[in-house]
Write a structure and sequence with these properties.
By secondary structure, the chain is mainly alpha-helical. It contains 17 helices and 6 strands. The strands form 2 sheets. A 4-stranded antiparallel sheet has the order 2-1-3-4, with no helix packed on it. Strands 5-6 form a two-stranded antiparallel sheet. A hairpin with a 3-residue loop joins strand 5 and strand 6. Helix 7 runs parallel beside helix 11. It starts with a helix and ends with a helix.
Amino acid sequence: MLKTLGRETKGFRLVSVLTPIFMIAEVIMEMIIPKLMASIIDNGVTPGNMQVIYTVGAQMVVAALFGLLFGILGAVAGSHAATGFARNLRRGMFRNIQTFSFANIDKYSTAGLVTRMTTDVTNIQNAYQMMLRMSVRAPASMIVALIMSYTINRRLANIYLIAVILLGCALAFIMSRATKYFGEAFRKYDDLNESVQENVSAIRVVKAYVREKFEGEKFRKASENVRNLLMRAELILAWNAPLMQLTVYSCILLISWIGAQLIVSSGATTFTTGDLMSMLSYCMNILMSLMMLSMVFVMITMSAASAKRVAEVLDEQSDLTNGEDPVMEVRDGSVKFDHVSFAYKKDGEKALEDIDLDIKSGETIGIIGGTGSAKSSLVQLLPRLYDVTEGSVSIGGVDVRRYDLDTLRNNVAMVLQKNELFSGTIAENLRWGNPDATDAEMRQFLKKYKIGTERRCHVIDDQSNIAMVEAGLGISIMPQMLLRDCKAAVKVYPIEPEEYRVVGLAVQRPASMAPAVEQMFHHIVEYCKDLD
């Protein structure tokens, strides 16, 4: 997991290294100040030497300014590294998702992938920034303060060491208990996002069937599951603050009590008032460092589950890959299914079994069957969206598994039964079929399918650039279906599989339909009559 995430720091490794260096430099400047303060008290204030006060005071100002400078540089570098790391993670996941086969996509829900690219990446970004800054600054501050304390008085410094060990053990125990709940909570986030996604994308159906109350209850249950798990985790983490405060105030009391006795017993010779003030300053530095570490532990606890989920997507390999010497050209559009069997899962029930089908190039074939009869499954084997379980599918006399994937899919026009229009213009959607399509070609197909003349939102600027509502919303179902067909028709393909639901067909299809689809429609109408 760490190796996978580490690859995504590329381009931001320099600032990732500079950030801890700046943090350590800031800590050194801060740890010098208590030592200089003790010198002012012992050598300047007590004997009344103004020269020492001015000289050492100027040194303290310089140390404070340098500490401020290093702190600013560390903050800027850390923010740059963390945001860049998050950008690389999102880009890496998005690019890898584009290579997924349908089988890979089935493994992760859409809501789960959205959660990983948003909530999980944000958690990792915050944790990475804290690791570069606070998780370096806090241990460095604690170590330097302990060293400086031991140079003043070993007996008092042992109090800090014991406190650090006890508190570290307590924090490790708290972290181990809370991690389990955070992992479960992020999995429940997927269910929550899925509920929102379904409700928003199908809001018209929800309102048409008056299901608002049911969907609201469904969302409430998903939210309640997330809340309960996060509350359990936070109740465990809530012990962090009282433990820290107990440790801090106990150390202050012990240092003050034992330090005062040392001053009195030694007559302020071996242990002075300035030394006691320095020890108290180092006490606050050490214990504040522990508090910062506890905050880092909380963030790491939350992000550990997120990091694992993100790494899963980055490590996921598509189960559809090119062979060693892929075929780069499709000879013709002939299709052959040779004793094909297919199951969505290795040990699952077969959706297709022992299919033999031979289609010559140029033929138009209609495959008719009831809902769930695996018509779509059969068609999806052509562009190799799935691989067959048994047998083989050949196009142009070559097994589809031997083709280069891009070459194969560039020669198969896949028109799915679900309408998918992307936000942007109609021209941009049409160019999915052919990125090099000219305005004249697009106008020709738009005219053929009679799109762009019904409503103002479909009016064509310069006859080619139709403004669309986001993701096709506001466009009726029939224009969406026509646009879907038109998008595939912009480019000429050797093979053009099209899917239509029987229940989704109107009684009268427009006269602008492609002849092949028109023939299929008449067959389906006869099928519907038989069903009646």
